[in-house]
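for the writeup, i need someone to sanity check this before i put it in the appendix. the sequnce is what the collaborator sent (i think, or maybe the updated version? ugh). structure was predicted straight from it, no edits. if anything looks off just tell me and ill rerun, i have time this weekend
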Amino acid sequence: MALPLSRSERLLKAAAPVMEQALRMRFVAEVTAGTISDADYADYLEIEAAFVETATRLHGLAVWGAPGRTALERNARAVHALTTTQADYFREARAAWPVPARPDAARRAEVLSRYALDVAREGGYPAVMTMLFAAESLYLTWCTRAHERGAVPDGAMSAWVALHADQAFRDGVRALAAEVDALPEDIPQERLTRWFTGMLEAEIAFHDAVFG
């Protein structure tokens, strides 16, 4: 007899059509094939750097609402990594990239931060864990495929893809799944599904904004 699905597994199953849509995004296809233009990737560096600030705020809220020491420490480490390692990556990659981002790049992609912060205010720690699980599951899947079977150009682009396909990132996604599984049962699964699919839909709009 099969074991019942966990909450995180049920989320992935319910959101599978939206996840597949996200995995077919133009941005994912072009980075994987190595065909994205310098101008478009410059815009991505700009908008993703801006979202890193939002992700820092999400993890900071999760520190405040963490149900225990393990969750508190994990989110505190994430805040540190986002404000050091990842901030350094974007600073260096943008400085070295052959063309600058277009002036309106960050504004075009505000949809993801707006959605994530609004839902975080609504749902607190459970919402943050659910949204981050959605976003990082998406990145783990497409970056693993691109890293293993794609033609991602060497340099800043391949480093970014590899970062989201390594064991540390995989372990982080697994930890997010465990946090989702441990959420109180009085939070309806339908609400988690709404947060999860909404985050994927916002990710699609965000990445489509790379292309103007």
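The radius of gyration is 17 Å. The chain is about 80% helix and 0% strand.
thx in advance!!
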